[in-house]
Design a protein that fits this description.
Largest sheet: none
Radius of gyration: 22 Å
Number of helices: 9
Order of helices and strands: HHHHHHHHH
Oligomer: single chain
Length: about 230
């Protein structure tokens, strides 16, 4: 579907350029965009490699584990229906830690592995579970202490002080994360009658009582009845 959207946008752009008699300008803009993209990518390689190395050193030195311990209670609050000793929690912690340091490229593989592990706990493999919905929301709106990718782009584009966006980025991501968590809790309470879909003390992450929707841990969309998102 995304490929078709891109094809539509590119074809539409050239069509309107041809109708307006600006096909030469559109072609030049295309090549300029490609050149700029390659230049920015090459400029970011060094910065991203540096921060990936710092992340590796922090992992070997125990800083990542310390951050994971700090985030542990938060993760257990956000994912009460995931058993405490399940591998999914470890991948979720690694994903959130990488996002906090602005290392989206490092966070992506951990997010994928976390989704795969959560799928194993999903009672209906054809639908996203409540925990999977929460991970997607939190991962998208994650708090970022150090936006390394943005800093790299700004440095490559000649910004006088590439790191002056740290404060505003932290504020913006903190607000977005708070809003994401509030909405996630609200939707869980609305569709399950309580903010969580499972009990944190159950070894299987299930509920001891409640409706069928609470027991299977699925998120339902508004007006779907027994349907699940």
């Amino acid at each position: 579907m995304v490929n078709w959207i891109w094809i539509f946008l590119i074809a539409g752009g050239f069509l309107f350029a041809a109708v307006g008699g600006k096909i030469d300008e559109a072609s030049q803009a295309l090549f300029d965009g490609v050149k700029t993209g390659v230049t920015i990518s090459l400029g970011m390689i060094g910065v991203l490699a540096f921060w990936m190395g710092i992340m590796r050193i922090a992992e070997e030195g125990g800083l990542v584990r310390a951050a994971a311990r700090v985030l542990g209670p938060v993760v257990r609050f956000l994912f009460p229906d995931v058993p405490r000793d399940h591998p999914a929690l470890g991948y979720i912690l690694s994903n959130l830690t990488a996002n906090v340091f602005g290392l989206g490229n490092a966070a992506t593989p951990m997010g994928i592995r976390a989704m795969q592990e959560l799928q194993k706990l999903n009672p209906d493999p054809t639908r996203a579970s409540a925990a999977m919905c929460t991970l997607l929301v939190v991962n998208t709106a994650s708090v970022t202490l150090l936006p390394t990718t943005i800093i790299a782009i700004r440095a490559n584009m000649g910004a006088t002080n590439p790191a002056d966006v740290v404060g505003t980025t932290l504020l913006a991501t903190a607000i977005s994360t708070a809003a994401a968590i509030v909405l996630d809790r609200w939707y869980r309470r609305r569709h399950f009658g309580r903010p969580f879909s499972g009990g944190p003390n159950r070894p299987d992450g299930g509920t001891s009582s409640g409706s069928a929707a609470q027991k299977n841990g699925r998120c339902r969309g508004p007006g779907e009845g027994d349907g699940r998102v």
